[in-house]
Design a protein that fits this description.
The complex is a heterodimer of chains A (633) and B (334).
Chain A: H1 2-23, E1 37-41, H2 67-71, E2 76-78, E3 88-90, E4 98-99, E5 105-109, H3 124-136, H4 143-149, E6 150-157, E7 160-165, E8 177-178, H5 188-191, E9 211-216, E10 222-227, E11 246-250, H6 255-263, E12 269-270, H7 275-284, E13 288-290, E14 299-301, E15 306-309, H8 319-326, H9 331-339, H10 356-370, E16 373-374, E17 379-380, E18 383-384, H11 387-399, H12 407-414, E19 418-419, H13 423-432, E20 436-438, E21 441-443, E22 451-456, H14 462-478, E23 481-486, H15 491-497, E24 502-505, H16 518-521, H17 547-558, H18 565-580, E25 583-585, E26 589-591, E27 594-596, E28 600-601, H19 622-627, E29 629-630
Parallel strand pairs in A: 1-11, 2-8, 22-23, 22-24
Antiparallel strand pairs in A: 2-3, 4-5, 5-7, 6-7, 9-10, 10-11, 12-27, 13-27, 14-26, 15-24, 15-25, 16-17, 18-19, 20-21, 28-29
Chain B: H1 3-32, H2 37-46, H3 53-66, H4 73-85, H5 100-135, H6 140-152, H7 157-171, H8 191-227, H9 231-238, H10 243-268, H11 275-281, H12 286-295, H13 299-327
Helix pairs in contact in B: 1-13, 5-6, 5-8, 5-10, 5-13, 6-8, 7-8, 7-11, 8-10, 9-10, 10-13, 11-12, 12-13
Classes of the chains: A alpha+beta (633), B mainly alpha (334).
Amino acid sequence: MKTPVSYFGVFFVLAIGLAGNAFGQASYLAGIPRNEVLICENPEGRITNPAWFNIWVVNHGGLSTGLQQLGMDTLWYIDADAGIDGVWDNSLASEKPAYNSDFTQMTVKLRPGIYWSDGVEFTADDVVYTVETQMKNPSTVWGAAFLASVDSVTAPDKNTVVFKLKRPNSRFHAIFTVRWNAAWVMPKHIFEKQPDPTKFDFNPPVTLGPYTLKSFDPNGGWYIWQRRDDWQRTTLARFGEPGPKYVAYIDPGPPDKRVILQLNHELDIIHDTTPEGVFTLAKQSPSTHFWFKGFPYAHPDPTLPAVLLNNQVEMFKNRDVRWALALLIDMKAVSLASYRGAATISAIGVPPTGLYPKYYFDPLEDWLKNFEIDTGKSKYKPYDPTVAQQIANSLRPSMGGQIPKDPKEIATAFGRGWWKPNPEVAAELLERAGFKKSGNQWMKPDGTPFSITLLVEGEPRPTMTRAGTMIAQEWRQFGIDAKTQAYPSGFFPRVESGDYEAAIAWSVETWGGHPDLSFFLDSWHSEFLKPPGERQPPRNRQRWSNPELDKIIEQIRAIGFDDPKGVELGQEYIKLAVKEMPQIPLMSYNVFTCMDTTYWTGYPSAETDPYTDPVPNWANTKYMMVKLKPTGK
Amino acid sequence: MSAYAWYLIRRFGQFVLVVFVGINVVFFVTHATPIDPVEQAISSVTQFGQTDPRAVEIMRKALRELYGLNGTIWEQYATFWKRLAAGDFGPSLSAFPTPVSVLIRQALPWTTGLLTTSTLIAWGVGNFLGGLAGYYRKSRLLKAAGIAATGLQPIPSYIMSLVMLILFGYIWPILPISGGFQMNVSPGLSTSFVWGVVWHSILPVLSLVLITIGAWFIGMRSLVSNIVSEDYVVYAELAGVDRRRILTSYVMRNALAPQLTGLALSLGTIFNGAIITEFVFGYPGLGTLLVRGVNSGDYSLVLGIASISIVAVATAVFAIDLLYPLLDPRVKVE
């Protein structure tokens, strides 16, 4: 009985080994030389509806399959970082938007000589069709937004579009301006032949971008795009020829597998992985390149995770309570717990990313140092400008030379100051708000225990969940009955329903490269605030209203997008948010993008060439294509 | 009417009742979930892009109407059964307007292929070796196999998948660790596609086989150990019947009946998918589809997959109940 079983086992292993060596690496991508293809992670995973490319329909197929990154185009792009030729790029438009004096009309001049991938010329009719078709179908992605703003849209000539608006709107162009995405232009000549454009799969997609779809997995695991032969007739051609002939967007699976695939040089760009995965790559993969050459490696996205406090919950209506909770958080511990120290912290209501240090952090540093809280019993200056420095110092013994020493580099990588934890001042603030301590437990003014349920997303967002766990623990140590509740599915809809007390989430997202704050701030106006029990539209998820804030927003609405006064008004908002603390800002949303330089070089870098956000699901990824060059391997 | 015919009618009635109750339970459970597909859709649209708060309400109304969620739950219940009677689960809400049946049809062959193959291999090899181990109790090799089976059985599937991944994807990277077939190959009856499917399935199948083979091995060894002491086996040995014949015709054949029941039940559950294995190996299938349906509040998709699974399990049990009296004369219908 021994012999056949033993022989079978040996034969099985040998057969797999031989076949693997013969077939394994070469079989990864059929018919395409490895050095001609850039392989990127699609963070959406396997696409449920793989054969749908009609990006204008809600819940169509994937967005980050390369479709919006390589196939779509729109009027303008704003980069989250420095930009390939400045932050603002006129893409399909040849100029910036031109508004009339009261912002009720916007005129757009289009770039001539741009063609769809099927050879048809792009014209103003495509833009008009895009708007009118979606207005007729308010269930489409931008249909409701157009319907809410646009009175009429016309094309006086083939290179001009005129929008007449229902009300003054100095930021109407934002709908056609890419931050992460924007309203993409539809090919009129394709869609007008469809009886119902919302039931058309748009397969294969006709593109305005520099690539066309070559092949895709009918089960949604991968999409391969090929550089257009006529790439010179696309808007990206202004910056040169895209380097990769092919680009593949794949579902590589869980974080550990992404790291293995990159170690095997089978995945050029990891969209995001765990801090631990990044540390492994930093140690074991000399060919891996990160946004920061050393710690914290990650790209800080222009999004501001924070402790959202539901300002409609009775206990959080009092500013003293909100500030007391902020003074109980030790940011060093939160940074280490969440990102293992690889966080870029922020004490103020904008993320410390892109060009915002120049616009907001540097000018407000002195104001923050002098900012004072008066508890009625004592006065306290809560800002500690050395917190990021302290985080860097605490990591230096274990991470050695990867931790920068230059204070400017530390500020860019780790952020600047944060609030000094001070339980005594927090206690004074709570007492002024009518709270009392009974034994080891703080009680609310009504005599019930001061308890907080901190909502976290759980498994889908481990870094933020770990931050929430640490914060709840710090509050508990002070005598607040705080606990976290994980809510992995439907997290943001629940936060927007108002069915929460506190949450680790975000309601601040900015352009990153451009200082205008209306992207998130306009929706914080009290005219949009819903009463408790009703669903709050994005993004005032903390349900905060303030007459001073309304005035700031109204002043921003009254000036142009590039008006320098916008920065002053933005600073006024930040000061107000510091005084009121409607949410407790924590850090930027750091994305651990890892780029393999085995086959491609020219990736963006914080230190040497921050020309775009490297995170490959942003639509700005198209700019990376012209900077990437083959290494010759 | 014969006793067997009455038995068949009774069992069919039970089958219909199980399917009806099961599908109803799934309908009401999915509709009781706090996850609203419209809010999930709005969240996905507004999470990254610039959003005018005035537009959100317009979009909410439009989507609710489009998805057919404006009626009461009883109206939706009636519509569901009308559609189901025509073999239609309606459009998926998370992949609107693609019909649920299309999504299931795309994923089903991968799940059935992966799980049928791994279940049959584990069942066949596990029972064969378990039978041998129960009969040739002194064999060192089979004792070692018994230890291995006992050791493998309690390992969770995600651990086994990760071990396989690291062993054959990193330390000795000879097998593909991602996807169902090579990239840039069109599915069809081409050699490259078929070979790619086989090649890409080795690790997922191996992971599933290794964690399930132990149970079959141990079960069969224990059954055979009991049978070898039965009078008819002892008598056959005393009568000088060839040992191989005793093993195959007298021992294993009699031990197979309960194992066949187990096999039928295992095959019935393959429509649930292998969520962890699919996730770890990036393998297409119903498990991933089901998780996405649950997370996005896609009632139609969850109902579609769950209904198929309920029918499959009930059918497997029904078939075994019908075949049992025919296969094993010791089982009476009354």
